[in-house]
Amino acid sequence: MVSCQPNGKYEVFPPPVFDAAVLSRQSEIPVQFVWPEEDKPTPDTHEELHVPLIDLGGFNSDQPEVAAEVVRQVGVACAEHGFFQVVNHGVPYELVSEAQRCMESFFSMPLCEKERAKRKPGESCGYASSFTGRFSSKLPWKETLSFSFSPFSSIVLDYFIGALGEEFRQFGQVYQEYCEAMSGLSLKIMEMLGMSLGIGRAHFRDFFLSNESIMRLNYYPPCQKPELTLGTGPHCDPTSLTILHQDDVGGLQVFTDGRWRTIAPKTNAFVVNIGDTFMALSNARYKSCLHRAVVNRESARKSLAFFLCPKMNKLVKPPGILVDHDHPRAYPDFTWSALLEFTQKHYRADMNTLDAFSRWIQGTAA
Ligand SMILES: C=C1C[C@]23C[C@H]1CC[C@H]2[C@]1(C)CCC[C@@](C)(C(=O)O)[C@H]1[C@@H]3C(=O)O
Ligand SMILES: O=C(O)CCC(=O)C(=O)O
Ligand SMILES: [Fe+2]
């Protein structure tokens, strides 16, 4: 039996759960949460990565030259590293604050309450206190609540009521509305991406009109040894497009030009990044870039991540116009359902997920 001693130390490893109330005050970090030297966390990195601030108001304006300039900036950022921020996005500030507030109340609940929504092995939805039980080392210093979204349904509201009870109807309504706003925003971004790749505004918007996306609430408790741990380890998102709202604490780092740099929080902006599935859809014209989240000694940090994903069984294949003699096919055809299964059952998402997955499906098809 694994037992937690009164001094907060674990008698045997692994710890049974990631109990933030205990661990966030403890200066001795259980070995499973300590990241190796090659991943060395650098919580004190203040060097910023300046990514373009994309003004969606400009894209929506009736001045074609203004919209064209916005599209050009998106194209440059996506070809370079795949990260940018959006402002004037039309998502009400009150909705974002309410989503952040509900998150605070959810993660402040006692562990046993949160565990009513516990994520089951092999599934991508539910509550996870770190990933104890799922992985045995390099555990993330975070708690997450993940749930599925697809448009034209009340799937988010139904999830909250089904998993946590009628008292969570209001949370369900907030996140249902938040996901609808994120799905709408991601379709606008798809229009910009299509235009910047020269295939017109409709192609990718129509591809993602019916999407089967994932919403994730990330809660990073303080850590007394932030130079040993990581909130989210280095990875490229396997999904298509991520829209992230970070609170004002800071901790998101992106790896470009051989070093980690911070994307500082910006009120009323969303951080957007290209994921592996869109990299495949663009035939590797656009980059899915390595990133991670560091933690700190003083403050808990919260982020809301909307992962846009295609419908499960839709073929992920770049449009013909992006494939030519100079740009041969970079990845095989696949479905999001297969890549999701790969990350949940066979491979822990990192910087090589798409290459490893490509080899895996080519092997299983042979
Ligand atoms: C399909 C997914 C797998 C992860 C959740 C979604 C989108 C991003 C993935 C993830 C966040 C990438 C970093 C590693 C991971 C294990 C994590 O820290 O949460 C990934 C998610 C997961 O497999 O649960
Ligand atoms: O919390 C963050 O800043 C980043 C989280 C992240 O990269 C993810 O959930 O995929
Ligand atoms: Fe990510």
Automatic annotation (TrEMBL):
Keywords: Iron, Metal-binding, Oxidoreductase. Its cofactor is L-ascorbate. Pfam families: 2OG-FeII_Oxy, DIOX_N. One of its GO terms (biological process) is gibberellin metabolic process. InterPro entries: DIOX_N, IPNS-like_FE2OG_OXY, IPNS-like_sf, Iron_ascorbate_oxido_reductase, Oxoglu/Fe-dep_dioxygenase_dom. Residues 210-310 form the Fe2OG dioxygenase domain. It catalyses: gibberellin A53 + 2 2-oxoglutarate + 3 O2 + H(+) = gibberellin A20 + 2 succinate + 3 CO2 + 2 H2O; gibberellin A12 + 2 2-oxoglutarate + 3 O2 + H(+) = gibberellin A9 + 2 succinate + 3 CO2 + 2 H2O. GO terms for molecular function: metal ion binding; oxidoreductase activity. PANTHER family: 2-OXOGLUTARATE (2OG) AND FE(II)-DEPENDENT OXYGENASE SUPERFAMILY PROTEIN-RELATED (PTHR47990). Belongs to the iron/ascorbate-dependent oxidoreductase family. This is Fe2OG dioxygenase domain-containing protein. It comes from Vanilla planifolia (Vanilla).
